Each structure stands twice: as structure tokens, then as C-alpha cells.
Predict the 3D structure of the following.
Amino acid sequence: MDHFSEAPIPRFPSPLARALRFMPLAPVSLALTRLTRNMATRHASMFRRLGEHADARFLLDPTDLPVTLCLEPMQGRPKITLYRSPPQADARIAGPLAALIGLVHGAYDGDALFFSRDLVIEGDTAAALALRNAVDDAELDIATEIENLSGPFARPLHKLIELAERRTGVALTRHEEDLLW
Amino acid sequence: MTLANMQLTVGPNQFFWKAEDWSALYDDLANAPVSRVVLGELVCSKRLPFYQDAILPAIETLMAAGKEVVLTSLALVTLKRELKATAALAEIGVEVEINDLTALAHLPEGAKFSVGPLVNVYNEGTLGWLAKRGATRICLPPELPLSSVEALCQAATDAGIAIEVWGHGRIPLAISGRCYHARMHGRMKDNCLFACEDDPDGLEVDTSDGTPFLSMNGVQTLSDSCASMAHQVEALSEAGVSSLRLSPQSKGFVETCVQYRQRLDGVIDADTLSTELVRVSGGMRLSDGFLTGARGADWSGKAA
Amino acid sequence: MVMEIVCPAGTPAALRAAVKAGAHTIYCGFADETNARNFPGLNFSREEMAEGIAFAHARGSKVLIAINTFPRAGSENLWHAAVSDAETAGADAVILADMGLLAYAANNHPNLRRHLSVQAAAANAEVINFYGAEFGIKRVVLPRVLSVQEITAINKETDIETEVFVFGGLCVMAEGRCSLSSYATGLSPNMNGVCSPASHVEYIEDGGALSAKLGGYTIHSVGEGEPAPYPTLCKGCFNAGDKSGHLFEDPVSLNAEQLIPQLAKAGVTALKIEGRQRSRSYVAQVVKNFRAAVEAVDAGRPLPEGMMARLSEGQAVTTGAYKKTWR
């Protein structure tokens, strides 16, 4: 039996994370909701893939940020709300922001992250799995999705992403299945 | 079909017993209220030499007592000696129960045979195909729900064959190329020193927090619980099941056969049977969840 | 001849990733209980399947459709429709396990190539030839209970192509003959296309320790920082007699990359990668590695360095039954 070491997943720099503590959450929530609704139109099959879990509530918890996202797919009319103290939900997926975004972009494999405990799943495991699989199939590119976004909601996101990309080395654009390890 | 018409079949002993204990079982069964006895080695070909010489006398005893006698094939045939043993089965002249399709490959075209619970008969198509090949009786896989049993009984009636279900005994859940008894003792399968002989009903496997879960029997994995159709025989009879299979255990097995017969004949009720089964076996946990429960381990009777 | 890489795809995106990464063949299933990876959010609609096959064919890859659960009594038409739809979608073969379904496909879709699924657990040449004679199968996926020597012997005695698993999840039991999952959860690979289903998994974090339950049974518990394998029943940590541990199998996954030269010599036609439930990035990475490996073996070069541990379950790997000591 062989054991191998692995490259660590980048963590969001803590001074920046601390700064986020004072960020107003409501406009960002609205912007993210707008973003996911746009995605829902462009990637309808992603929400179809959720099947019976399309009404579940998911907590996406970047463990290196002082906020938690609550995603409600609502049968293809998704809503995202940011919380400082997370509410009850059907499933919680927690891990470093880079891992969560890397999953979306296909840079990481969900099972591998889970085995290495970089990712934690709680609650309804089947719902979490459905979301993971649906997102993996959608070949999302968050940066492109944000570029497509306009209006008052776009600005705070643009700023946030720019900052993060510059300072963290986190995968913010989709990788053509070229892996980070 | 009425309950009293339902027959009892004794399945092959799944465990590794000393030759004298093995022979004693079949001597006792000659006088038990069972119609059919399936015997031979199902699980591990390495066990066979230890009691091979006792098989023919057992067949004679049982036949003389008026029982139908059937020889089982191995459940998983991979090695050369296993292939040879499987080929030889067809030549003994006793009805064969196939528990691996390899055995069917050796039966002459058109020969009558029966199908054991370890062959995957899940639907009418497979049942019909086996019937066309000469199957006269099928013991269904233990994991089938009642709805499947009902549909398959219907198909069996059309095809003119008999359906049997797993009626009693630890449930065969899996078979492997690896021997878990040997592995647990830090030995290789080829040098297992017959570790499974110490556990005449399998070795109990508990979860890490102490819940009884499975049992280990060499290359086979069984349930910890003992399946019992005590509460299900009416539903099975109504579905058209013609026989219940009782799987041998080391304690009180002939008594167990007698009690099932009494249950079918209306002498005792389901609760009484269940209580008696637990008593004679020395405290087995019962289950019947595959048939009507949410999962195999569930039990529809009173909590023990 | 270069050995054929047969690669899993749980989603259209994974199929495209596999094709681009160089998979000769991709296997996938319809999004229902007809296939043995019937997991939430996975698999293909009829439309997606036809598109996926067209995509693969345009780039010279083949697509196999796994219809490898055992049809439910009273509902066989669902499985019959899957076979028919596979042919319509242009599948290069169907992978079947059930005798009744094999007979149906042979009678009603004689021109659709049939492979025997690992779920049929055909573990010797005689039974493989029997399936060939009765149902016209062209290839068998060998059960993961055989050693390389046994595989060599099988290939000597049959003309039917053999395909073996080389990477991914490892069943320690003979597949298609295991009801452990339905005993604990009511859902089984044979009937429902799931093993140790996520819907019955419960993770409990307790001060750094993580315990995983399946249908209420504790499968394992790991301390802080230790790898946390999925609670697959047969890889759990149990007690028996005075022993405790992984009594059936360690939480390892199969990696037979180093055995490719021996498997080639044993006459194996195709190498199969497990993991329709894994991501497109996993698929792409594993395919690239194995494609490079079979090209190297074919050219008589040494195998490239393996780098797939990160993708493995529990991050530990085994060569499984291929080495006889596994038993």
C-alpha cells in the first residue's frame, strides 16, 4: 500500500477575510442571486439534474471566510443569501473557498477533496452529491458569468473577484480539466 | 395454494462442520417433516475433502426416508479443481441445484435442474429463460421484495415450475474471492488452516460501537440476523410460493423444522414460532425486512 | 495493439472530457435504475446520450451503455426500452448482466453488440463461453476476484474479449452477487443501481472525529486530520471475535497501472476505469495517465510515473485480486 503527499489547497488570506466581516451582506446576496438566476437560464440542465433535490436548501460554507452562502435552487429560480451565522439547511458543504470554487470549475474532484477532508459534507448527503454532480456537468466559469452580469449588482462582485484573484491565486476561471495537482 | 400444502426444503449447510456433525444432521433430517434436502458444499471448495465421503451415505439415508435429495453446486467457481467438481456434479445422477451458472454449462441440454438462491433470478425474463433450459424449481434470491415474489410466482405458474423462498436462516449476502476468516487470522486463503471451522454458525461481526451486524463464513458474508418468514407465510402462500427453504444451524435445527411445519399446519402462531426459534437457537436475532420492510435487517414481529 | 482504455462518464461534461483526454471508449448509463451507478445528479437523458455519442463518434471514440442492473419483476419494459433506446442513440455496445435481458437483447436487437457486465460475475472460461454460446456476447468484464494467472488462463480458453478493471473503487465481493447494501438500507446494486447510497449516509462530526453511519450502522470513525473514506459497507471498520479493523477490505482503491504489461501479456483487450460518480476532472486526469501508459507499453517503453494517488479513495491503493496474496 502506498501513501502519497499532496499539494495544499490555497487559503484565503486572513487580513482580507477579516475585512469581509464588515462588508454589507444584502447587496452581495442580491448580486449573487442575480448571478445564479442568469446561470440558471444559461444552464437549465444543471437545475434539472438536481431532480428531487431541486427544493433543498444548501449551505456553502467557505471555511476561510467569515460568511456562509445559502443556496436555494427553487426549481430553477435560484436564490442566494449570505449569512454571518448560518441558518438551518438540508445540506452543508464546507471547505476553503479555493476548494469550493475549484470544484465548480472542474479543477478539483469532489470525492478526492472529501477523502482528504478538505471538504466536509453534513446533512442530506444525497442532496449534496446531486448538487456536486449537477455543477460538475454544467462546466461553469464564474468569471465569465460575472462578466455577463450588468447593472447595480455587478459592481460589488466585480470588485470582490478582482481582489480575490489578485491576492489569493484561487482558481476563478474555468480550467479545461487541467488539474491543480 | 393453502398453507398446509406449503413444503419445507432444507438448504445446503453454509458452514464448515466436522464430518460427524455434518452426517448427524442428515441422519436427524431423515425423520424431520421436510420434503426436500439440498446438500453438498456451497461456499468453499477447500472444505469438501473433509466430508466428501459422508455425502453418498447421507443421500442414501435421506432417499430411503422418502426425501427428495438435491446436490448443490459451489456458489463461485474459479479454480481448476472447482471446475472439475462442478463438471462431476452432473454425472452423479442426483438432481443438481445450480448456485453458479457454471454448473448449468455442464448439464446436458434438456436435463432437469433446480436453481438456488445465489443465482440472480429477479424477473420473468430470466425465470422464463431458465425454465426453457430445464429448470423445474427456483429458490428466489433473499433480497427480493414481496411484489417481485408475487410477479415471479405468476410467471412460474405459467412456466409450470415451483417457487421457493428463503424461509429461515442467516442470509447469504455476499461471496468473495477473498477468505475473511483467513484474513482475520493473518493467513492467506491457500494456507487458511480452516479457521472457519471454529464458527459453526459463522462469526458475528459487530459495528465498532457494538451493534451486531453481519457474520463471517470464510469467503461468504451473511447477515447477523436469522431470517424468518414466521409472520410472512400467509402472504407467501397467497402469492403462490410452494416451498420454504430452511438453512441449517448448529443448534436446534430439527426442532426448527418441526416448528415451521406446525406453523404451516396451523398448530402454532407466528409469535409462538418466533419465540421458539429464538429459544432453540440460543438467542438468534430475527429479521424479515427484505420481503416487506424498509431494509433487510428489519423485523416485523415483536421486539425480542 | 494498444490496449483499449474504457473510461467512465457520469455526465455529458465528463464524456466530453474523457474524449478530449484520449479515451478510446466511454461507458455511461441512462438516468434511471437501469444502470448500476444510479446516483443523484448523474447520468444521461435520452437526448444527452445521443448528443454524447455523436460527440464521441465525431472524434473517433466509442460509447458503451451500461444497462447492468437486474430488471424488476413486473417492470421489465423499462429495461427493454433502455436497450432499444441505446441502439437508437447509436451506442457501440450495451453492457448487460441479467440473463433475461441478454436473451431479450439477443432476440430483439441482434445487431447491437453485447458485453457481459461485471455484475454477471462470470469468473471462469466455461461460464464465459456459455454466455457467448447462449447470448452472443462479444466481451466480458471480468469480476475483480481473479488473479493475473487466472486471467491468462481464461484468455487461453475463450475467444471472447476480456476487459478488466485497472483503477478506481474496488468491490471486494463478487459483484452482482452482493446484498449487503440492501440489508442495511433497502437499496442494492442489483435492484436499484446503488451501493451504500448517499441517501442513507449520515456523517457525525464530534470534536474533530468524524463518524459515518449507513442505515444507522456505524461504518467507521476517523480522528482529526485522518482521511475520511466514503462509508462503503464492505470497507467499514468492524469487530469480530477479539479482532477489530477493516475485516473485509481496507478503504483502498484499485490501481493496477503497474500491472498493465502483465495484463497485456495475459491477453486482455481492454482496461476499465471505475468511477461514473467521479468528476470530469478525475476522468480527464485518469484517462491521460492510462492512455500514456498503454502507449508506452505498446511501444516497449517503461511506464510513466504514476501520479494518481490524490484521486484515490482514502489515498491508499492496492493491486487487488490481481496478486494472489490479496485473498
